[in-house]
Amino acid sequence: MAQDFERTITANIDASLVSIRAASDSDDAIVGIRLANITTSQIEVDVVIVDNNNSDAVLGYIIKNAPIPAGSSLELIDGGSKIVVQSGDEIKAKSNATNSLDVIVSAVDAIST
Q1: How much is the pTM?
Q2: What is the pLDDT of residues 63-76, one digit of tens each?
């Protein structure tokens, strides 16, 4: 069965957790998360996995308080790594500055067995 590659782009993230990728009705593999600082000052970012079935409870941090210099980016998943998100999971991100973060997520939807 062919894999369904997808991307999600979320722009101008600020200090509130914002959804950057929700799992489909099946398990998904996140194969890339790129965080880009679009400001002229350094920012700090968090990326978490939350459980939408349990009042957005944080299941775990992918990264916490990561500094990203002005005009730079940070690749969270590389070298063939993957993060599996299950149905009901959602990946969220936030920055410590207003309208400062763009995020691109690459995923394989509906992993075949």
Answers
A1: 0.89
A2: 999 999 999 999 99
